[in-house]
Specification:
The structure holds three protein chains of three kinds. By secondary structure, chain A is an alpha+beta fold. Chain A has a domain at about 1-35. Chain A has three helices and three strands; from the N terminus they run ααβαββ. Chain A has a two-stranded antiparallel sheet. An eleven-stranded mixed β-sheet of chain B has the order 1-3-2-4-6-5-10-11-9-7-8, with helices on both faces. In chain B, helix 3 (about 25-35) packs antiparallel against helix 4 (about 50-65). Chain C folds into three domains: about 5-300, no CATH class; about 310-420, no CATH class; about 430-485, Arc Repressor Mutant, subunit A. By secondary structure, chain C is an alpha+beta fold. Chain C is elongated and about 100 Å long. In chain C, a hairpin with a 5-residue loop joins strand 7 (about 115-120) and strand 8 (about 125-140). Chains in contact: A-B, A-C, B-C. The interface between A and B is large, with 53 and 67 residues. The complex binds magnesium ion and zinc ion. Magnesium ion binds near residues 22, 207 and 224 of chain C. Magnesium ion (MG) binds near residues 22, 207 and 224 of chain C.
Chain lengths: ~90, ~500, ~475
């Protein structure tokens, strides 16, 4: 379970950490499972705590045109692009 | 200098107005205090030059009679707030070297009202922790000690640096963020005041996200008045945060001393746990008496789903975090660890960049959202969360306020090796329910444990009733007469 | 489906093709779905990028009202249910051009529910295709893979651009139907003005889900071929995929449910390596956004202001101008064509107008590689030409010469006719004189005709027209010649 989830989360876990991590996670999960005691049959999952509707913004260009700021903190860039190891589709 | 450090923010603001002190003097005193208490590791960076420039500008405005509500008051900023041009890492190696080109809305509100930035304060990595032990910048020691045991104590977390620095007088006030108790629990551990406002009061824009549906910024200060003063500046309706609320903020300072005569206070019977120290229960009893003495009526109430708040939180918060932290991938900012392919680069970067606890929570969060488990965990938690919120809605039909202990114990020594994650999570057992319900809550120092460490009481109000919170907080504060000073505070 | 016409012949018998489409249509907005940066096409790297689009820490999405309105409008145009309550979810996956590590989309509760559109086929028949849903979501950035041997370059200009994903039911049975569906969908979007339908610039792209089965049997395993950016490629990809799947199954193999890419150079599809892992998108409601809610009255207001849509226009063209279903479909495909046609047909022979437009004008434009907007012949001038045919000023034959001149010079038909002396002869005396001449010169043939050889009538018409250099009014020639010969 840990290696599958770690792959999904894109976090490398060293071989020797897999087993201890599995134990920690399963301890947490089994503690969490006390929720099964709660009867939630007729309950709607909470969508938002405020109950407000989503505020809508006007369609106006107010942002962007700061390419230097966008790549300012990037580990690798070239001529305004971010650079990553080659992606094979 | 000591005089400058012992003033409350309200006192200092008055002294700045009547010119008995200057902003530069006040700031220098705090920069000195920050230096003097460096051993606590509360600061990740002290922004001396910025602080001096801002203080000078404050003095200029004060001279023209244009001082803002927080003019000249030196404030520390939790490293979770993005500060323009100043390294912001959420105390994680994955953001090493990150200098935002923008300012968070909350800190901008503070600067607009004249506050002076002292520097960035240590916290748990991505605010995930209850002892400030998960920080990539090292542990923070509480300025409080226990006579004769020679140990360092936890300041609480995740806003551990914030609470420690306010208690150590290395900042006059500090910003905190609270997701499941990260303002209230460290405030209680450090003998200071902390407020988690109603969800949506403070903009989340520019605050490094942990769990979006829970994260709220709030003040940590030495007194209830100071925290109210600071909160008033922090809140705003921000069009840059869709969950920011338009509800007008009541004038807190205008009614903070109005008292609570006739207020109905609920004492929730579920706020207790196995092995909880008798002195915590005793504090709680005392708090009830203080409120009654001030003219409130206290009644026993029930919030039946309280027990399930913590496990609910440990599904919802990691789930949101697993997604919120997906952006730390070594492409646009932060530290990158190369790999043979894009996926390897991601996995290496994130393995090196995230600490143990953050990794654990990302994995839990990824798991509870994954195919086949989503309904059993995430949906179940969101249903339970509604039941928890309903508990509060129901109880607030009967009472105006709730009184509970802030934490199940006083601070514990740092570096306890045998503590498993779940035991650590139990620290937040009394603070998490209000977070899940989105209601405002506050922790006020109420006394000392037998070993001399601070204890705090928690007040919880209905949504948008921060006014009730500070009025009652002021009553507790006065009655408690908490005057102890941390042994490792500056100038002691 | 009892109709066998769409079935595909394999080595072992007939196969039924089942096609569903997911079309991504870019909303024609000024700014992005959740940020204030420009949504327009063509800018330098990372220029149209806000700190929200680049997923800087703490930056939050705020939705664009116009985009919501366009989605509602489109939903109404698709005869679909508009949901007054909908939810934005995060679709979590890692990719270099997905800065947040998730795409904000709508999963369980989309803004638009079930609807349907009518597609028009070449044989003049129509079919209903079900729409399953339409949801709003953000586009990803762009990865450039061919700039460097071991690196990919990332540009986030498209990151956060508003898309409507329109998902059909698996109701299509051939590449032709899929093409007709996309054509019709594009028309509707363009009529509504909610998407420019420009497939070359990527403002409309389709993912094609294809499976095959024996007629009447359970659905087969489907593949999804992603990101097709022309109607022609959609057809080619479907046919390639159908052939591939049938061959695999007939060879005893099984189809993998997978994501594929269409290679435009080979005309074949191939498996997408980067998507090989079983995907687990971990959808959950985006906690940075509240549920999207609006009033029915707002929907009603949008509905009241909807423009005429392709089906209504087609029906009106058939009704008002007496056009055939096929002609009306062609003319109703876009607003420009319809407006052009209505000017040509204004007060004239409507059928003649449609012929001249769809056959002659479209034919000529096609040959020149021009669009209708670039036509050298204005609708007013083409209308004038149709008018001149209608009132007998020129014959259809002559009109073709005039039209050729108009295409060349953009000239006015009256002027061309005047200048070249092409006006039709409708003068009874002149025609009579020509008929008399032809009869006098061909008395032997007149005898044969009168002796019963009816077919010779055509010969006389030809002779008279020839004598008039094609300018005699053919109707009058027919009528008068018949009177003379029979009399
Ligand atoms: Mg698709
Ligand atoms: Zn999509």
């Amino acid at each position: 379970m840990v290696s599958r989830v770690a792959r999904l989360a894109r976090i490398h876990i060293d071989e020797e950490r897999l087993e201890p991590m599995a134990q920690e996670l399963s301890a947490i999960l089994s503690w969490i499972e006390q929720l099964n005691e709660v009867n939630t049959d007729a309950v709607e999952p909470l969508a938002s705590v405020t109950g407000h509707a989503l505020p809508l913004r006007d369609d106006v260009v107010t942002d962007g045109n700061t390419p230097e700021a966008v790549v300012h903190n990037a580990p690798e860039t070239t001529s305004g692009f971010f650079v990553v190891p080659k992606v094979v589709e | 200098m000591t005089d400058l450090l012992t003033m409350t923010a309200v006192e200092a603001r008055a002294a700045l107005d009547d010119k008995s002190i200057s902003a530069v003097e006040l700031t220098e005193a705090y920069l000195g205090a920050a230096q003097a208490t460096e051993a606590l590791n509360a600061y990740t960076e002290i922004t001396h030059d910025k602080a001096r420039d801002m203080a000078k500008a404050s003095d200029a405005r004060l001279a023209k009679g244009e001082g803002g509500a927080l003019e000249g008051l030196p404030i520390g900023v939790k490293d979770l707030f993005c500060t323009e041009g100043v390294e912001t890492t959420a105390c994680s190696n994955i953001l090493n070297g990150y200098k935002p080109v923008y300012e968070s809305t909350v800190t901008q509100n503070l600067w607009t009202d004249g506050a002076v930035m002292l520097g960035k304060l240590n916290c748990d990595e991505f605010a995930m922790g209850s002892a400030n032990e998960t920080s990539a910048r090292g542990k923070v020691s509480s300025p409080w000690t226990v006579d004769g045991d020679g140990q360092d104590y936890a300041p609480g977390g995740s806003s551990g640096g914030s609470a420690a620095s306010v208690a150590a007088r290395s900042s006059l006030m500090a910003t905190g963020t609270d997701t499941g108790g990260s303002i209230r629990q460290p405030a209680a551990f450090c003998g200071v005041v902390g407020i988690k406002p109603t969800y949506g009061r403070c903009s989340r824009r520019g605050i490094v996200a942990f769990a979006s549906s829970l994260d709220q910024a709030g003040p940590i200060a030495r007194t209830v008045e100071d925290s109210a003063l600071m909160l008033q500046s922090m809140v705003s309706h921000d069009l840059g945060d869709s969950t920011s609320v338009a509800e007008p903020m009541p004038d807190l300072m205008g009614q903070i001393n109005d008292g609570i005569k006739g207020l109905k206070v609920g004492i929730p019977s579920e706020y207790t746990m196995d092995g909880m120290a008798d002195e915590i229960t005793a504090q709680w009893q005392e708090g009830r008496k203080w409120l009654e003495d001030a003219g409130a009526t206290c009644v026993e109430v029930s919030l039946p789903h309280t027990k399930y708040a913590l496990p609910t939180y440990y599904i919802v918060a990691p789930a949101e975090a697993s997604s919120n932290l997906a952006r730390y991938d070594g492409v646009r900012y932060g530290a990158r660890v190369e790999g043979g392919s894009l996926d390897e680069m991601y996995a290496n970067t994130r393995a090196a960049g995230f600490g143990e606890e953050v990794t654990r929570r990302i994995l839990i969060g990824t798991y509870v959202l994954s195919a086949g488990y989503y309904d059993a965990y995430y949906i179940k938690a969101q249903k339970t969360r509604r039941l928890i919120q309903n508990d509060f809605i129901e109880v607030f039909k009967e009472v105006d306020l709730l009184l509970t202990p802030a934490t199940p114990s006083a601070a514990f020594p740092l570096g306890q090796k045998d503590v498993d994650p779940v035991t650590m999570y139990l620290n937040d057992v009394f603070t998490v329910p209000a977070s899940l319900a989105g209601v405002p809550a506050m922790s006020v120092p109420s006394g000392l444990a037998s070993n001399g460490l601070p204890l705090g009481l928690q007040l919880i109000a209905p949504s948008f009733r921060e006014d009730t919170l500070v009025k009652a907080g002021r009553v507790v504060e006065k009655a408690a007469g908490f005057a102890a000073i941390a042994s490792r505070a500056a100038g002691v | 489906m009892t109709d066998n016409s769409n079935l595909v012949e394999g080595r072992s018998g007939l196969w039924e093709v089942v096609i569903g489409l997911e079309v991504h249509a870019q909303v024609t907005s000024q700014s992005k779905l959740f940020s204030g940066s420009s949504a327009s096409f063509g800018a330098g790297p990372n220029e149209h990028v806000s700190l929200v689009d680049a997923a800087m820490p703490g930056m939050l999405p705020v939705i664009n009202k116009y985009c919501v309105e366009q989605a509602v409008k489109t939903g109404l145009g698709l005869n679909a249910r508009v949901n007054l309550f909908s939810v934005f979810d995060r679709k979590n996956y890692f990719y270099a051009d997905l800065p947040q590590g998730y795409q904000i989309s709508q999963f369980k509760q989309p803004i638009i529910g079930e609807g349907e559109i009518t597609i028009d086929l070449k044989d003049g028949t129509s079919r209903q295709i079900g729409i399953e849903r339409l949801h709003l979501e953000q586009d990803a950035g762009k990865s450039l893979h061919d700039q460097h041997p071991s690196k990919s370059y990332i540009d986030l200009n498209r990151s956060g651009v508003a898309l409507m994903e329109i998902v059909s039911r698996p109701d299509m049975r051939s590449a032709e139907e899929a093409a007709a569906y996309v054509t019709k969908l594009r028309s509707i979007l363009r009529f509504l003005g909610t998407c420019d339908g420009n497939m070359e610039e990527g403002s409309m792209r389709a993912d094609v889900n294809v499976s095959v089965r024996r007629p009447g049997e359970e659905l087969g395993t489907r593949t999804e071929t992603k990101n097709l950016n022309s109607i022609r490629f959609i057809g080619q990809a479907i046919n390639a995929e159908v052939a591939r799947q049938i061959e695999i199954i007939e060879d005893g193999g099984a189809i993998d449910q997978e994501t594929r890419l269409f290679d435009t150079s080979t005309g074949q599809t191939r498996s997408m390596r980067s998507k090989e892992d079983a995907h687990d998108y971990r959808y959950f409601p985006d906690p940075d956004l509240l549920p999207l809610q609006f009033e029915q009255s707002w929907v009603d207001e949008i509905k009241a202001n909807l423009p005429e849509l392709p089906d209504a226009l087609k029906a009106r063209l058939m009704e008002q101008y007496g056009l055939t279903s096929y002609d009306a479909t062609v003319i109703a495909e876009d607003l420009e064509t319809a407006a052009f046609y209505e000017k040509v047909a204004d007060g004239r022979d409507a059928k003649l107008a449609s012929n001249w437009m769809t056959v002659e004008l479209f034919g000529a434009l096609n040959k020149m590689g021009k669009t209708l907007a670039e036509s050298p012949v204005t609708p007013e001038k083409l209308g004038a030409l149709v008018g001149l045919i209608g009132d007998g000023t020129i014959s259809g034959r002559i009109a073709k010469d005039v039209f050729a001149e108009m295409i060349e010079t953009g000239g006015d038909p009256d002027a061309i006719i005047e200048e070249k002396g092409l006006k039709q002869v409708s003068d009874t005396g002149a025609i009579e004189a020509m008929i008399d001449e032809v009869i006098a010169a061909n008395m032997d043939k007149v005898e044969e005709y009168r002796g019963g050889k009816d077919k010779l009538f055509g010969f006389f018409v030809g002779q008279v027209m020839k004598a008039s250099k094609g300018q005699a009014n053919p109707g009058m020639v027919n009528q008068m010649l018949k009177a003379k010969l029979d009399g």
